[in-house]
Amino acid sequence: MTAETSQTLDRGLRVLKLLADTDHGLTVTELSAKLGVNRTVVYRLLATLEQHALVRRDLGGRARVGLGVLRLGRQVHPLVREAALPALRSLAEEIGATAHLTLVDGTEALAVAVVEPTWTDYHVAYRAGFRHPLDRGAAGRAILAARRAPAAEPACTLTQGELETGACGAAAPLVGVTGVEGSVGVVMLADSVPERVGPRVVEAAREVAEALR
Q: Where is the signal peptide (predicted)?
């Protein structure tokens, strides 16, 4: 802590991070132990966060992340999209395929930014707001692969015809971006993904990750 920072705000943010890292919630006693402060301080922090719907407490008294966090999260998408657009434009123009940034939204993959190439005669029409299950399509599968091996070097995931007949996809996960789980990829009308596409998609995912750090 420095003279310019707020100890109370710091503790409140730490509470949110602790709750976000657990599926079953935490009691006041558990939070008190993890934060190294007394229970009275924790009660005050939780009461304040509850007022803003950032925390909720169940009938058993366990605190969990509240729905207010989701409302804040929705406002992040435009910022993420803006940061990713330069890398997506470069990827789409170089590969000649529709490039996209996809983020996790619950159990689904949500396309939040899409860039189509300007010079091709035809390409896949892929729109921001498009959703699909995480276990279908290159974008979702790349995210799941990163979950299974978080310490591994990012690799390109390839799929054929899983979301649209005649279309294939390539995607690589975003790595090292706190609070953002997603992937960068391309979708094209082809029998298979050309060999040069995989490394370029991985590079684009790294560029987006750097822009978001």
A: none
